[in-house]
Amino acid sequence: MPFKANADRRHRIPKLRFRATNWAEYDAALRGRGSLTVWFTDAAIAAWKAERRTAQSGQPRYSELAISTALALRAVFRLALRQTEGLMGSIIDLLGLDLPVPDHSTLSRRAETLEVRQPRSSTRPIHLLVDSTGLRLCGPGEWLVEKHRSRTRRSWRKLHIGVDADTGQIAAFTLTANDVDDASQVGPLLDQVADRIASFTADGAYDQDGVYAEIAARHPDAAVIVPPRSGAVPSATAETAPTQRDEHLRAIAECGRMGWQKVSGYNSRALVEADISRSKRVIGGALHSRTDRRRATEIAVAVRALNEMLELGRPEYVRIT
Predict the structure, then answer these.
(1) In 3D, which of 126, 133, 117, 119 has the Cα closest to residue 218?
(2) By percentage, how much of the chain surpasses pLDDT 90?
(3) 206 CB contacts (<8 Å, ≥6 apart)?
(4) pTM of the full structure
(5) Which domains does the chain have, with CATH numbers?
(6) Which residues contact 295 (CB under 8 A, 6 or more apart)?
(7) 102, 150, 184, 218: least surrounded by Cβ within 10 Å?
(8) 265: left (phi > 0), else alpha (psi -120 to 50), else beta?
(9) Which helix (H) or strand (E) segment is 224 a member of?
(10) What backbone phi and psi angles, to 5 degrees, belong to 128?
(11) What is the model's pLDDT at position 311?
(12) Is 178 exposed, middle or buried (0-12, 13-18, 19+ CB in 10 A)?
């Protein structure tokens, strides 16, 4: 991208400065994210124990609410399963509740099949920002590998996320192997968004005909804002029936790539990178579960926790220089 290619000359460009207009509310929201205030509603207490199954099989003792609550505490406070069990027990004791506490083996087993429901309340068109990042798997650290000059058998996974540009919340996500192409996950991400998509913004890795076709089939009116590759050429119908990609190439030829970024709104893609950074600072940049299904549950719990933190408050900025 241009900011990488022209890094040696960007010192002449003054850095933009912004000021938060709702600092008091945002400051209170940041303090609220670290609050240890915990309460159990009557409905939560009543739903803590699982309902009995009608089929002849083992009866679960804990409901999905109990398991998801414990896993959420584990994700936010970065605890092991045994420490999560201890934290849950201490909270219930301090509140004076007579509720059973899931043990660490139950948490590990139930995470394999737990369905984490993500709340969807928006009915407006969504401006979807898409990107991916890597998450390490538990195992020998980089220092240990570097010291002994050996290769670890464990690898890392790739997290694909779609962020709502207006709210900053993660609207869709998938977890795949590290060799999966980013563009191949556009369909699974779109499947998770029930609302109409007004625009789809992503980096140059998504500059593929299949991405444009996938979005056009589901949301014909959606604007696809993806920078064409450096060697991109117009399509055969660019003169008679130009595609969105042809329009991007024309705009880049007229006002340059930096000018196209401002005109098209591509610069808003920085919001999804901010969400990735927030996730790794709050939740961490590694996966602790041992199976793919439990890792998917771990990510789903973390996404819900991050979205609930954002509901407490977000900053509103205005440019001052």
Answers:
(1) 126
(2) 54
(3) 130, 182, 183, 186, 226
(4) 0.85
(5) 15-115+294-321 (no CATH), 124-288 (3.30.420)
(6) 157, 175, 287, 289
(7) 150
(8) left
(9) strand 223-225
(10) -95, 125
(11) 87
(12) exposed
